[in-house]
């Protein structure tokens, strides 16, 4: 099954929204081209690729799995992927190893939120997509649409999907042009324009053959090509001309026997597009005649004779008309032949695909001058081999492992490729006591991979130019066995050529999640995979029996390696925290821990919800938010314990767009601030909004996003008051040159500004002005350093010792800011979207010891001064937040719900109980389904799906995707003061805590912080003796 001819190989994955028919389609492809692995009658019922018990029980796919198929002369590696948002990481692993993608869309439900996500994933990984419109039978039998109505629906879906892809293309086109205009020459020449991908035509065009219309459940499907070839032989016309005419506004004139446009049908009364007349109407007639109660099967017999179909008589005599129809249709328009023909015709082979995808897989590096030329030449040779998909034995061997997956040891093959006996019961570490064996899910991009071969395992942080300093990021491993994946089955092979997908045994102790395999050390690692969401659902776990803690820790290590998206950490309180993408993902992880990896009983805590802390800000008036930084009275002042330093802190609310940019750019900022941007490489940043790769410097990309975010507020202000907008612009131009630090963790969404250099200094004090080091690294100083006067006083002579002490205290101020932003005053949660200005005034010590002994004692006494400054800055930052109307910020899910009209009321009842905010409600045209979009707080989402199913009797489904952070408008310390408030809420003693205060108290209670609450609610006198009646 391993094809040595690269041109005959296709690597494809199936991507779609949940329940749109991916696994059913895979079943029919396996039944048609799997060499007898699956009987056609079981296709769609067995769900061959869902071989886990949990997948069969829930009827959803939970992992990506591969199978090797044979169609004509081509070897096709098919990867089935999940559609549930909780398992979107598996979509990323499948897309990285594929060259093309079959994107399924339900013809009834249309484009959904996960359809957008998988199209973006295919675009990021530079896959060649083909569109498959599934469930056409529901348009006939369930919705009872006419052929013309069905055509309108199909046309709208194709236009909508093309619109999504066009958005990605336009973003890429504009960013390419912008980067060229920003070049040194400032002009775009013809030689540069040829590298810009223009958005001149739609991605999916049925007349080109990359759109299939199928019914996966009944096993039939077609593309325009099948009908164009049939009618070409019937009418004696050109097949290519008919192919272009069978989609779009093309009509057949029966009088002139010509194909005409809209203008040519003005005199015709019942003109229909050719797709309706020659494709859909025959299908509708076959379905309607077969499903008639009187059993009229004359048209079915006509179809059987016309196309010379071989349908067994016993199937035609079946009393169930649905089975009879399925037998005829699956032989007239076999699904596997149509889809596989489209795959071979429209999707590239590995050689063509890798030359197109090389910029994504191995982006070019910007190198310094002082580098080892030998290493660079060999690395470029490896990159060229990957680009050409060189499958010769002399080529360097390069492979990428997208994930590790666990297989029970008893399921490994007992015989090798030559019939020799294999010893499978020895674990990689030699212990032999593990029931699970870890295999690497990999694809060979260059060379030939052989069992027993020694390769280098490169992590994503490996840099071949750094030599011995990155030894921890490279390991040498020996490959024990190679397997061809056949769903759950494994077929051992001795060697695999470039362009094929394979499972590798022997890397369990060397790879945690993903890695690059290379036969040489001088190879750049592949670019990291892009994941659509982050694991946000966290729970604390512990064994029911404390003696099982060792087994639990071992099980967590195995789970962390087996699941590409799970997160395992230890909290500051010593708890083992498990992070998952959602409830379904978490339930599967807990089940795997209990039954496969740890095999002990586990206690699971309630979900640990993350919050953020901020202050109240007026989004409609951003100018007023900045006034707090320029006001001389709105600050908090605190003195260090030794009395030598006075700390004044001011705080402001950052614009929401700026906060979002800082939060989404944490990885880019870590590289820039950490100094990686000036070293050996520049990775291509990922635009979070669209997932489009930007071929420009990360610093320039971040600056552009930051300026665009500020322009949002400026443009809003300029609509009402241009003078205020200009003042706002000038203020931010000054603030951009005063970035001292980001926090928490040096890359968070909070900013520490340096003090205003024009501030008045007291005669006896000394101001620590800091340095705008972040602005300097981001290139915001415009090539000239800001004129910060050295810390000065009005006195002419400044003690050199005091000046040096002020310079050493700069790190203490930054550290105090980092501590404050990592744990806010409300419930020790990180701060969100705040800007701080810290003015630290130090004064000389009042003691002037004369003898050396007393001087030494004085230094020891004040040696803790930097720590005092750090603690004072931290306390002052927390206190200034408390005095500026603090607010709690919570994460929000974007929720998309689908339900019928009769369940709308109960569905809204469930949403109201969970503080949801409904955004949009619309009815899907031509169907009884309603689509409702809403925002649901993450803290209210646990058990949401079960509650929704229970209340609507299973009539409503929901999909949750992490959307954004949103501040609760409620004041957690609200106390009625005015007469109206007292009349509405009562006096202070009887006011119940609002939602914000309840959330804060719940977090403080979980963290062991003090909570203001009544310990005894209803006191009764204690009865110490029995009551005598």
Task: Please give a structural write-up.
The strands form seven sheets. Strands 14-13-19-10-11-18-15-16 form an eight-stranded antiparallel sheet. It is built from 32 helices and 34 strands. It is of the alpha+beta class and 1029 residues long. Residues 183-199, 425-433, 676-695 and 784-797 have low confidence and may be disordered. It starts with 8 loop residues before the first strand and ends in a 22-residue tail after the last helix.
Short synopsis of the structure:
By secondary structure, the chain is an alpha+beta fold.
List the helices and strands and how they pair.
Elements: E1 9-16, H1 22-33, H2 53-58, E2 65-71, E3 74-80, H3 88-96, E4 100-106, H4 113-124, E5 128-134, H5 136-141, H6 147-181, H7 190-193, E6 211-215, E7 220-222, H8 224-235, H9 239-245, E8 251-253, E9 258-260, H10 274-290, H11 298-306, H12 313-316, H13 321-332, H14 335-346, H15 350-361, H16 373-388, E10 398-408, E11 436-446, E12 448-450, E13 454-458, E14 474-478, E15 481-486, E16 489-493, E17 495-497, E18 501-505, E19 515-518, E20 537-543, H17 549-562, E21 567-570, E22 576-580, H18 583-597, E23 602-604, E24 611-615, H19 622-630, E25 636-639, E26 645-653, H20 656-664, H21 666-673, H22 698-720, H23 722-735, E27 739-743, E28 750-753, E29 766-768, H24 773-777, H25 800-808, H26 810-822, E30 834-842, H27 852-861, H28 865-882, E31 886-900, H29 904-913, E32 917-923, E33 929-937, H30 944-951, E34 956-967, H31 979-985, H32 995-1007
Parallel strand pairs: 1-3, 1-4, 4-5, 5-6, 28-30
Antiparallel strand pairs: 2-3, 6-7, 8-9, 10-11, 10-19, 11-18, 12-17, 13-14, 13-19, 15-16, 15-18, 20-22, 20-23, 21-22, 24-31, 25-26, 26-30, 27-28, 29-30, 31-33, 31-34, 32-33
Helix pairs in contact: 1-14, 4-6, 6-10, 8-9, 10-11, 15-16, 17-18, 20-22, 22-23, 26-28
Pfam families: EFG_C, EFG_III, EFL1, GTP_EFTU
Protein name: Elongation factor-like 1
GO biological process, one term: cytosolic ribosome assembly
